Amino acid sequence: MPFLQDVSPGEIDEAMRLLSENNALLSVTARYKGRWVTFRTRVVAGQGDTVWVDLPKTDHLPTVYTFPNGEQLGVTFNAAHRKFVCQAKVMGMESYRPEDGGAEQVALKLRYSHRIRKIERRLCARVSLPPNEGARVTLWLGGQDLCPDEDGIAAAVWSGRVLNISTGGLLVRTSNEAAKFVDPDDIVGIHVLFDGQDEPVAVDARIRHCAQDGDMALIGIQFLATEEIPENAAALEMIRSKIPEAGKPPAVAQPAR
Which single residue of 11, 59, 123, 202 has CA 20 to 30 Å from 167? Predict the structure, then answer.
């Protein structure tokens, strides 16, 4: 995808060094009872292709999530003013003692894949869609596995018009009721139906921001990269094919002569 760029070995080493030295924050995405959930944590140590992170808190889940050995997690982190995405394998849990001498803590040991990619937002040209054409979105909490149209699953569903879209995400105007239920970093399943298309594109995404717009709501949605959710690959290619302009860098204004 044009908004994701491969990272050189040197950049990987530098990003991992910064992660370890700065006790950087991570977002970890995992499957839980058939849906995607996101946890926040921080790096406590790193060595080579391995990092140790504070055991993510799972208090918001109805049952304990144990991060089984061998599970593949989606990881997003910031380093050197850039955002990176990759997959990491759970290698177990180990105890450590904080540098401040506090009580012994439990860390989750992760080994990252050697394909790390960085998000270059400037490569995501936004395409504004006029009111009489474009696309509509249906969204619900929990990802595609909780699609309310399947298996009789009952879930709140909101729909709205796409105001602008890129290969990285979209902005949708929808019911203000949605703003009462979604929060930044929530994982959602969405269906994007382009004009003239019979079947919607199904993709998992993350809420980036939400704000009231009169009696409606504006919700910014970021598509989950294939490094986080491999199942998104085909859907993202389909979206890219519908908005070819989004694969080009934004035009740079020329100085007046």
Answer: 11
